[in-house]
Write a structure and sequence with these properties.
With 457 residues, the protein is an alpha/beta fold. It is built from twelve helices and 22 strands. It has helices at residues 133-136, 157-167, 189-202, 219-239, 251-264, 278-286, 315-323, 332-336, 366-390, 397-414, 424-435, 448-455; strands at 4-5, 8-12, 15-18, 29-33, 39-48, 51-56, 69-72, 78-81, 89-91, 107-110, 121-122, 127-129, 141-142, 149-151, 169-170, 178-187, 208-214, 243-249, 290-292, 298-306, 326-329, 349-350. The strands form four sheets. Strands 9, 11, 14, 16, 17, 18, 19, 20, 21 and 22 form a ten-stranded mixed beta sheet that branches. It has a seven-stranded antiparallel beta sheet with strand order 1-7-4-5-6-3-2, with no helix packed on it. β16 (178-187), α3 (189-202) and β17 (208-214) form a beta-alpha-beta unit. α2 runs parallel beside α3 (189-202) and α4 (219-239) packs across α5. It is elongated, with a radius of gyration of 25 Å.
Length: 457
């Protein structure tokens, strides 16, 4: 029997204290029944004996301490899941906001999920094509990987996120069994419209599940949004056997909401005011990506975060880097040059790229050309700096060719616009076109058999 309590003793901002309660557990969902018949929801944050501290999902305005009642539902926050999730747009709490009907659930799943047994994890080994050369060719994304994008304020990470969500696909026999779960966390109305319209315009919405949490929504909803998205992804991947790409933008807004709730609870702050459990909290999200032995589906994750003050040592990018397998970094210098997308390939890294490339996955020459492009671009950048200091006359003919290669690499390989979808073959062929700017004798990282086949005379 569900009990109702009239023992609300205090409301402070988004927090409410209820006394003399029984058998209530952490993270349990509750309903607040107002005198006017309105119902609001809350979540248990802390249990201290018979006192319970709850976080309100909506504003506390209008709650009458004496006449309002609270009842606890005996369960955590849940998401209704079925195959009908695809093509739908939800708010941060999983309520449809596209004008369509409610989901008739095949299951109700707790949004906190179940931890994946490390022994049950399968190693990521298959290629995912994003259509973006700077990622596919040089920092390859692999099924089951967590590959964050580090951006900064004012950089076009929204365009990059939309492009990847629109273009991403798995190659081979599983190509029709692919879905995208897109969660926007703490974004503006304009950004929400941009994502929704872009996906509808291109038809990508048909294989996408969208969760939209706006900047004016409550902080507790912001904390729930990525977990809603990951719960939907787990259902699609492990119940329906699909390959799912989860894009979360912006993780910085999520961490700020976590800090806000922590401050309201008067917890001792950690580095830069964030709670000491930020690492653990982020890990509970990121580690839900992966592949399971015995299951055909997979969850691949691209979290996007804006680095405050463009500082890589800030707690959010710092901890994200520890948990994930690499990072794609957007560069303000490239953005100023008009490079789209402005991906800085030299500090970017995909730690699992070697597992997803090669014969039978991409092409046999991929690893060699990738290493050669990295090396040539790095040397070309150094030579461009020398030209700026000493002038062209101080460099040899070969050094000048490297400098030319570096410029052409940025202009033709990295910069492709946000609407160009390149296959992995097109990316590799373009790499060879650029390598032909250099003498064959300089291509020391490529096997002779591949030079004979692809470099030409």
């Amino acid at each position: 029997m569900i009990k109702e309590y009239r023992t609300i003793s205090e409301v402070v901002g988004p927090l409410m204290l209820i006394q003399d309660v029984e058998n209530v557990t952490y993270d349990e969902l509750g309903e607040i029944l107002m005198p006017n018949g309105e119902t609001r929801f809350c979540k248990v944050l802390e249990v201290n004996g018979t006192n319970v501290l709850v976080q309100l999902f909506e504003a506390s305005t209008g709650i009458n301490l004496k006449e309002s009642t609270v009842r606890f539902l005996g369960r955590g926050t849940e998401l209704a899941v079925s195959h009908d999730l695809l093509g739908r747009v939800f708010d941060g709490m999983g309520i449809p906001k596209d004008g369509g009907p409610d989901i008739i659930p095949e299951k109700m799943l707790d949004i906190n999920g179940l931890p994946m047994n490390p022994a049950a994890r399968d190693y990521p080994a298959e290629f995912i094509q994003t259509g973006v050369s700077a990622i596919d060719g040089l920092n390859t994304l692999v099924r089951g990987q967590k590959l964050p994008i580090f951006s900064a304020s004012g950089l076009p990470h929204a365009d990059v996120a939309a492009q990847i969500a629109r273009q991403a696909k798995v190659t081979g026999g599983d190509s029709g069994n692919f879905a995208v779960v897109f969660a926007a966390i703490g974004i503006t109305h304009e950004e929400a419209e941009f994502f929704a319209n872009d996906f509808r315009r291109t038809g990508a919405i048909d294989r996408t599940v969208m969760f939209m949490n706006l900047a004016n929504d409550p902080a507790v909803e912001r904390i729930a949004t990525p977990r809603m998205a990951l719960t939907a992804a787990e259902y699609l991947a492990f119940d329906l056997g699909m390959h799912v790409l989860v894009i979360l933008t912006d993780i910085t807004n999520y961490a700020e909401a976590l800090r806000e709730v922590s401050a309201a609870k008067k917890e001792v702050p950690g580095r830069r005011g964030y709670p000491g459990y930020l690492y653990t909290d982020l890990a509970t999200m990121y580690e839900r990506a992966g592949r399971k032995k015995g299951y055909p589906g997979s969850i691949t994750m691209i979290p996007i975060l804006t680095m405050p003050e463009e500082d890589k040592t800030h707690p959010i990018p710092d901890l994200t880097g520890y948990i994930t397998e690499g990072q794609i970094i957007l560069s303000r210098d490239l953005y100023r040059k008009g490079i789209q997308p402005p991906i800085d390939v030299l500090p970017s890294l995909s730690r699992l790229k070697d597992k997803g490339i090669g014969k039978g996955k991409t092409r046999e020459d991929h690893a060699n050309t990738m290493n050669q492009l990295f090396a040539a671009y790095a040397k070309g950048k150094e030579n461009l700096e020398l030209v700026a200091i000493l002038g062209e006359a101080a460099l040899s003919e070969v050094d000048l060719k490297y400098a030319t290669f570096s410029k052409e690499f940025e202009k033709r390989y990295v910069s492709q616009g946000y609407d160009t979808d390149r296959s992995i073959e097109q990316t590799l062929d373009l790499g060879w076109e650029l390598l032909r700017l250099l003498p064959r004798s300089e291509l020391k990282r490529i096997k002779d058999e591949y030079l004979d086949k692809y470099y030409g005379e």
